[in-house]
Amino acid sequence: MWISKTIFNHFKSRLNFTPNYAPLSLLSPRRFASTIAQNPSTFNSIHDANQQVIDFPGGTVKFIPEMRFISESSPQRIPCYRVLDDDGQPLANNFVQVSEEVAVRMYSNMVTLQIMDTIFYEAQRQGRISFYATTIGEEAINIASAAALTRDDVIFPQYREPGPLLWRGFTLQEIAHQCFSNKYDNGKGRQMPIHYGSNKHNYFTVASTVATQVPHAVGAAYSLKMDKKDACSITYFGDGGSSEGDFHAALNFAAVMEAPVIFLCRNNGWAISTPTSDQFRSDGVVVKGQAYGVRSIRVDGNDALAIYNAVQAAREMAISEERPVLIEALTYRVGHHSTSDDSTKYRPANEIEWWRLARDPVARFRKWIERNGWWNDMAESELRNSMRQQLLHSIQVAENIEKPPIEDIFNDVYDVPPSNLREQEQWVKDTIKKHPLDYPENISA
After folding, report:
1. Is the pLDDT of residue 5 over 80?
2. 34 is catalytic
């Protein structure tokens, strides 16, 4: 969305996003003046008054006679930016205002996510789909970040971001088609449920492998930069993703190549069953950006307005200044990691319940729009009833549509499939015909 230069500069200053240099020509790497190495003959010690420095490749470095180790951590943790308190009250008025239309749409999409998760989770428990993962507790990150982007921005999700797809117009029926792997599924039935993808909506297909999407987003961002597009890429990942090598390679690559990419980390405290305390000793994920030379900020992930403001500012910086930005959103995964997980085995049930009731991002945002006179109980009831009916209908439709043809399993890899692949295809078809009761009735062999 458009934001005036005056508001942007004010907001950038308030978030402590201070540019260190002005953007130069496209693709020419920018550096601090001190990082430009001088003539190699000056690599020896230079005496400047009483100070000794070395003009090492990469920048001038001071010499000191005392031995000092860099501290492993600051005595104070990086603060967390928020706009609304737990009761939905603005802490100040210097945030980018959201119109009634956008606010109501954001809230409606957050509610839709809640209802969708409840119904599809139940469908999996009934054996109607094979797998599901919810976004409960992380609705604000999903929807508010999407609202701050444009349709030209490219999204590289993990597996807990159906919200941006909903925001961009991916229908509930399309979601149901994917979860039921029928012939209208964009993935041709070859992906697990919730592994959405849509070229139309600039949303790359979800992959379960942790953090592999992060370097992909950097490559896409660099391509947008080379093509001089007024757009960026954004990639979502969890705190567990920051423990993968792909995350570190991606941040370094993005910083060095000055790619317009937003790294949005959902630090929800748990990488499946591994707490953050067992993953890293640093102050969360935000400080890792600083180590690689990436501008970074920590945001309250359960505050929709804070997420909206931060992502909008980060997008403007990424494009206008040609730089990567890291956002660490502190939130909590209220739901189980997936339908294959029981999170009460490794975390207290009362902790989950407290976050669900006291820190619910949907309830907090509702209080704010109600105070503005944009929402009421009647609108709430109508929305929830309507969404529930639409979802139930979408499931009934998707469930009764035949599966993709078996040959789709073997297509789209080779121009001319090799003989061994064709033999496997025929073997699968023969097996289905021989044991029809072991396969869905609506599968085409």
Report:
1. no
2. no
Which residue type occupies 265? Answer: C
Nearest to 248 by CA among 260, 266, 263, 269: 263
Q: In this structure, are residues 188 and 410 in contact, taking their beta carbons and an 8 Å threshold?
A: no
Q: Label residue 225 exposed, middle or buried (CB < 10 Å: 0-12, 13-18, 19+).
A: buried
Burial group, residue 69, by CB count within 10 angstroms (0-12, 13-18, 19+): exposed
Q: Which of 145, 198, 243, 338 is catalytic?
A: 338
Confidence of residue 260 (pLDDT cuts 50, 70, 90): very high
| Strand, helix or coil for residue 301 | coil
62-70 own/partner pairs: CB under 8 Å, 24+ apart: none
Is 73 a residue of the active site? no
Quickly state the pLDDT bin for 18 (edges 50, 70, 90): very low
Give the predicted TM-score (pTM) of the model: 0.89
Give me the pLDDT at residue 3, please: 43
Residue 234 near residue 156 (C-beta atoms within 8 A): yes
Of the candidates 100, 122, 382, 423, the residue annotated as catalytic is 122
CA-atom Rg of the chain in angstroms? 25
Q: Count of CB atoms within 10 A of residue 416's CB?
A: 7
Q: What is the rounded CA–CA span in Å between residue 284 and residue 421?
A: 47
Q: What is the DSSP secondary structure assignment for residue 187, as one 8-state letter?
A: T
13 as an active site residue: the answer is: no
Catalytic site residue from 322, 336, 337, 394: 337
Contact 86, 364 (CB under 8 A): yes
CA torsion, ordered 168, 382, 336, 275, to nearest 10 deg: 70
Collapsing DSSP to helix, strand or coil, 100 comes out as helix
Would residue 122 show up in a list of annotated catalytic residues for this protein?
A: yes
Which among 108, 208, 282, 320 is annotated as catalytic? 208
Please state, in angstroms and rounded to a whole number, the distance separating the CA atoms of residues 217 and 235. Answer: 6
Residues 6+ apart with CB under 8 A from 246: 211, 212, 214, 215
Which amino acid does the sequence have at 7?
I
Contact 365, 106 (CB under 8 A): yes
With tokens 């706009």, the residue in question is 83
Range 31-50 burial, b when 16+ CB lie within 10 A, else e: eeeeeeeeeeeeeeeeeeee
Q: Could you read off the pLDDT of 80-107 as tens digits, one per residue?
A: 999 999 999 999 999 999 999 999 999 9
Residue 271 amino acid letter: A
What is the distance between the alpha carbons of residues 54 and 61, in angstroms, rounded to a whole number?
A: 5
